[in-house]
């Protein structure tokens, strides 16, 4: 009897660990043990330095990429200008003050909007005239008196030893709605996969997609709490059905292995490669490396990192 009890306990422990893998990985593997901010890169750069930390790159006359190449995650935020207002898409890590950088580029009133609510994208929320968040039912239900308290595994700030904040929300952007900046419009797209309440902004006039962490040149995290491989597949299909084939995709994390430090620019061809990989994973024809997460090659430096077949579905 004791043997069967011991075996049952062992099986229960294994199953619990397998099902809880996203949370266990987040708690123990995400925590940063090295330097959060490193020295300036020695590689050639695109753009100009501000305050020896931010790298500002001109995408076009009304669009700027604001990079943090000294931050270990290499984040990029985007300042999108109209004639009446501007949007800062993604608020950066918060390790340095991004407000003076934005103010040096525009005098327009600025709305900061995160692609999702992970710690490295919300640093500037509440620091500009307005803050906008995706109009997601679960987020709305938790909002109290205009404040949204971020949850532990929604924020993941323990990776950098940051406490989850309360965020003032001035605008809720509904999926499919249009944000008018004055002679420039952005369509709000709900793009779950990396996180359930992720959004992207599509500028069809300039054929630009600002996609946050949905796709970028590096390992795509689809194995943490809230991530979903099947949501990744559905979103990729929807994006390919929506975007102009010439659309340039501006992502939120730079290519750490490229010869030049620059804003991460991808194309529809990369989405097609991601779709092919996701379908191959579903069809059990794709080959991976690693145990948890499992890493699947996509295209170039893009890799898809997902959990066990029974988790992160």
Tags for this entry?
313 residues; alpha/beta; Metallo-beta-lactamase, Chain A; 8-stranded mixed sheet; 6-stranded mixed sheet; 7 helices; 19 strands; 23% helix; globular; disordered N terminus
Describe the structure.
- This protein is α/β, with parallel strands linked by helices and 313 residues long.
- The chain has one domain (2-306): Metallo-beta-lactamase, Chain A, CATH 3.60.15.
- Helix content is 23%, strand content 27%.
- The chain contains seven helices and 19 strands.
- The chain has helices spanning 2-19, 21-29, 99-103, 137-142, 152-155, 229-242, 268-282; strands spanning 48-50, 54-60, 63-67, 76-81, 86-89, 110-113, 130-134, 147-149, 166-168, 171-173, 178-180, 185-190, 199-203, 208-212, 219-222, 248-251, 265-267, 294-299, 302-306.
- The strands form four sheets. An eight-stranded mixed sheet has the order 1-2-3-4-5-6-7-10, with no helix packed on it. Strands 11-12-13-14-16-17 form a six-stranded mixed sheet. The chain has a three-stranded mixed sheet with strand order 15-19-18, covered by helices on one side.
- A hairpin with a 4-residue loop joins strand 4 and strand 5 (86-89).
- Helix 6 (229-242) runs antiparallel to helix 7.
- 43% of the residues are buried.
């Amino acid at each position: 009897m004791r043997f069967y009890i011991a075996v049952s306990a062992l099986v229960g422990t294994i199953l619990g660990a397998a099902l809880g893998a996203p949370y266990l990985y987040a708690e123990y593997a995400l925590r940063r043990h090295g330097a959060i901010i490193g020295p300036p890169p020695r590689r050639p750069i695109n753009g100009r330095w501000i305050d020896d930390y931010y790298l500002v790159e001109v995408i076009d006359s009304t669009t700027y990429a604001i990079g943090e190449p000294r931050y270990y995650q290499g984040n990029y935020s985007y300042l999108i200008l109209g004639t009446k207002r501007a949007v800062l898409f993604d608020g950066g890590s918060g390790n340095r003050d991004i407000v003076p950088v934005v103010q040096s580029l525009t005098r327009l009133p600025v709305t900061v909007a995160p692609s999702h609510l992970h710690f490295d994208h919300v640093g500037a929320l509440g620091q500009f005239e307005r803050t906008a968040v995706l109009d997601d039912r679960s987020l709305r239900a938790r909002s109290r008196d205009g404040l949204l308290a971020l949850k532990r595994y929604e924020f993941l700030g323990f990776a950098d030893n940051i406490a989850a904040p309360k965020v003032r929300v001035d605008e809720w952007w509904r999926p499919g709605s249009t944000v008018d900046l004055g002679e420039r419009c952005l369509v709000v797209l709900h793009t779950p996969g990396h996180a359930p309440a992720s959004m992207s902004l599509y500028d069809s006039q300039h054929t630009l997609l600002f996609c946050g962490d949905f796709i970028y040149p590096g390992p795509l995290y689809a194995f943490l709490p809230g991530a979903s491989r099947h949501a990744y597949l559905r979103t990729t299909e929807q994006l390919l059905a929506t975007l102009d084939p010439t659309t340039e995709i501006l992502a939120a994390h730079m290519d750490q292995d490229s010869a030049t430090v620059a804003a991460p620019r991808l194309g529809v061809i990369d989405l097609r490669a991601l779709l092919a990989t996701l379908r191959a994973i579903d069809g059990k024809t794709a080959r991976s490396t690693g145990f948890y997460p499992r890493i699947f090659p996509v295209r170039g430096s893009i890799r898809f990192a997902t959990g066990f077949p029974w988790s992160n579905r």
